Amino acid sequence: MSGLSQFSAVTGGIGWTGSPAIGGAWTTGTSQTQLSAIAAPPPKKSYRNGLVLLFLSPLLAAIVAEAALLIAQRVFGTTLIYEHLATISFFGLEIGAITLLLRVFAFNKNIWPRLFREWQMSFLCRRCGRIFIPGSAL
Questions:
Q1: What are 62-87's pLDDT values in tens digits?
Q2: Distance (Å, whole) CA 35 – CA 80
């Protein structure tokens, strides 16, 4: 028993909602107990968000530039150069994505191994439910 359970359920029914109604559903998933969530090893951070931002930044830069252009025209009555706005937006988003990727890399390389070692040395007291490292102050 690891505290994780896979489940699958199928349901169906017939009813009356002003007219006859028939329905069915199928669902699957994973259920985790609170104790197994507490005792689980520390997760590594994912690179997914940084990579998505990195690859979608040209599209997002175009959207941001278009919005800034429309706002500038309505508020100030001036016309800005769309290409400059798109370029500035693109490089800003790229810098943000690279910063995010570097932060995740630094966490996974420097902080996560220490957290994982602490997790490997920890024990769960079955009497009180506390997780502790032997020899450390409670």
A1: 888 888 888 888 887 776 677 788 88
A2: 57
- Domain count along the chain: 2
Question: Residue 88, CB half-sphere, CA atoms under 13 Å: how many?
Answer: 11
Domain assignment present for 138: no
For residue range 35-64, what is the model confidence (pLDDT) as tens digits? 777 788 899 999 999 999 999 999 988 888
Return d(Cα 69, Cα 57) in angstroms, integer: 18
Query: Which of 93, 100, 22, 24 lies closest to 56, judged by CA?
Result: 93
Question: Does residue 109 share a domain with residue 50?
Answer: yes
- In whole angstroms, what is the distance from residue 42 CA to residue 60 CA? 33
Rounded Cα distance, 31 and 6, in Å: 6
- What is the rounded CA–CA span in Å between residue 12 and residue 46? 38
For residues 81 and 68, is the Cβ–Cβ distance under 8 A? no
HSE-CB of 33 using CA atoms within 13 angstroms: 8
For the entire predicted model, the pTM comes to 0.66
